[in-house]
């Protein structure tokens, strides 16, 4: 088996958030292989922990992937302030005599956005709605690299490292089987409040879980890297639940066309055609525009939005929501069948390095200062006796179940096979019996009756 086949068989998907099947990324040749260890969203601890704890394994995987891609350059990009992590990685590079560079980034958000990272590392801007490969790069998250190391040792993806932060006794790292209930993870971190809601991921782009039903149903997937526990009345939840009609009214009455949303937009900074202030200016007449050409002229920029949230959570002095408006507009562009042309050769703006959003100021704006700067050092193993494993933990088609209720499965055994096209294998994360299969996933129990 070559590396791509091994990665596919092991069910590896991007561990940093979106869950793009990694074997598809690796089915290429690239000039530069970039490892994303920036962990740019505030409060997340996972990638830093992995760099400090598993540096030799990560470096071994970087060398293997770079050789597979025939990359001339292998780079681990992370924030310059991560001194302990840089020291651990540098020691491992020296010990292995590995041709791997460390690239130190500033402390800004979104340093870990892969297009921003590629621009910082190589000086090249990825085309609008393009891939890093369009400019000769492949980017993988540091957690994905650790999974590749495991795959080379014959271990599929069955566990996940994640941090639990916010209103807990102390930030903590957990190592848990995929499919573990999120409530088990929160309990292990000892929440300091009872009436809480959760964010899975980072405070800027994470998934909000507000209702008890949603919290109870949520499980750890291959992409879960962090859980934030916050009071239900926190500002972030208020912003997350604003309905589109309220946003439309607020925009019409309060947008002062200051352009801050555009000036600080990371995609605008790398040269993409995206001016959220113009989308906001035209929003009031959006329902009345019937002609698709006119619609594209007014709103086509929204197609280049990556949902980072800088515009609405940091830039806008009026507390408006350009990101949510762009999300709505993107849906409308799809519904109308409008194909917005792409600039394939964008050039970063000359002021790109002067307009980055400092993380500490962002944290203050998000109302999270009380939790910032607290780090997770301890890592606990959880061994639940029941897991629910979703078939769709990745971008693309859900995997197809190959077991049935009543089947005995060993940890690491294949549970659902990748579908045709873009998909990924899913493995049993504990040894036990399949006790339930739904269209969403399978429940395995190790309880003895
Ligand atoms: S930053 Fe806010 S007020 Fe300024 S143009 Fe953008 S949406 Fe309007
Ligand atoms: S969310 Fe806002 S800042 Fe981020 S890419 Fe979209 S328009 Fe730009």
UniProtKB/TrEMBL annotation:
Q: Which GO terms describe its cellular component?
A: membrane
Domain 4Fe-4S ferredoxin-type: start-end pairs: 245-277, 296-326
InterPro entries linked to this entry: 4Fe4S_Fe-S-bd, 4Fe4S_Fe_S_CS, Helical_ferredxn, Ion_transpt_RnfC/RsxC, Nuo51_FMN-bd, Nuo51_FMN-bd_sf, PduS, RnfC_N
The organism's superkingdom is given as: Bacteria
**Keywords of this protein's UniProt record, alphabetized?**
4Fe-4S, Electron transport, Iron, Iron-sulfur, Metal-binding, Repeat, Transport
Question: Which GO molecular function, any one, fits this protein according to its record?
Answer: metal ion binding
Q: Can the keyword Cell membrane be found in this entry's annotation? A: no
Q: What PROSITE patterns does the record point to?
A: 4FE4S_FER_1, 4FE4S_FER_2
TM regions (residue ranges): none
Q: Does the keyword Transferase apply?
A: no
Q: Which PANTHER family match?
A: ION-TRANSLOCATING OXIDOREDUCTASE COMPLEX SUBUNIT C
Q: What is this protein called?
A: 4Fe-4S dicluster domain-containing protein
Q: Which organism is it from?
A: Candidatus Intestinimonas merdavium
Tell me the lineage of the source organism. Answer: Bacteria, Bacillati, Bacillota, Clostridia, Eubacteriales
């Amino acid at each position: 088996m070559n590396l791509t086949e091994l990665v596919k068989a092991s069910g590896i998907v991007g561990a940093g958030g979106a869950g793009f099947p990694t074997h598809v990324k690796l089915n290429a040749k690239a000039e530069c292989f970039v490892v994303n260890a920036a962990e740019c969203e505030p409060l997340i601890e996972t990638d830093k922990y992995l760099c400090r704890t598993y540096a030799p394994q990560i470096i071994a995987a970087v060398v293997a992937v770079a050789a597979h891609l025939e990359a001339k350059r292998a780079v681990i990009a992370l924030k310059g302030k991560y001194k302990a992590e840089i020291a651990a990685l540098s020691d491992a590079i020296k010990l292995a005599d590995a041709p791997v560079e460390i690239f130190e980034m500033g402390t800004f958000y979104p340093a870990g956005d892969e297009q921003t990272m590629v621009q910082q590392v190589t000086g090249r801007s990825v085309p609008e709605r393009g891939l890093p490969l369009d400019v000769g790069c492949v980017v993988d998250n540091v957690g994905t690299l650790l999974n590749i190391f495991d795959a080379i040792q014959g271990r599929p993806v069955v566990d996940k490292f994640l941090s639990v932060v916010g209103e807990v006794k102390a930030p903590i790292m957990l190592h848990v089987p995929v499919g573990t209930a999120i409530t088990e993870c929160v309990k292990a971190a000892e929440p300091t409040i009872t009436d809480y809601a959760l964010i899975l991921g980072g405070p800027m782009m994470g998934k909000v879980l507000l209702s008890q039903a949603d919290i109870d149903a949520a499980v750890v997937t291959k992409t879960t890297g962090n859980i934030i526990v916050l009071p239900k009345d926190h500002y972030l939840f208020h912003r997350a639940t604003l309905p589109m009609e309220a946003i439309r009214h607020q925009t019409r009455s309060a947008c002062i066309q200051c352009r801050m949303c555009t000036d600080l937009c990371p995609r605008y900074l790398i040269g993409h055609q995206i001016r959220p202030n113009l989308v906001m200016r035209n929003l009031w007449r959006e329902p009345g525009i019937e002609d698709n050409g006119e619609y594209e002229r007014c709103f086509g920029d929204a197609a280049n939005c990556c949902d980072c949230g800088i515009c609405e959570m940091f830039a806008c002095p009026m507390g408006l929501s350009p990101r949510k408006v762009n999300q709505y507009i993107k849906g409308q562009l799809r519904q109308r069948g409008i194909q917005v042309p792409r600039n394939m050769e964008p050039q970063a703006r000359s002021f790109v390095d002067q307009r980055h959003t400092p993380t500490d100021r962002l944290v203050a704006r998000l109302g999270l200062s009380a939790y910032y700067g607290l780090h997770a050092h301890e890592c606990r193993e959880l061994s639940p006796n029941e897991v629910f494993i979703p078939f769709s933990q990745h971008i693309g088609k859900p995997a197809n179940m190959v077991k049935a209720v009543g089947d005995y499965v060993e940890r690491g055994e294949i549970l659902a096979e990748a579908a045709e096209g873009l998909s990924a294998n899913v493995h049993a994360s504990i040894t036990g019996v399949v006790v339930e299969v739904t269209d969403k996933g399978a429940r395995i129990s190790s309880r003895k009756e």
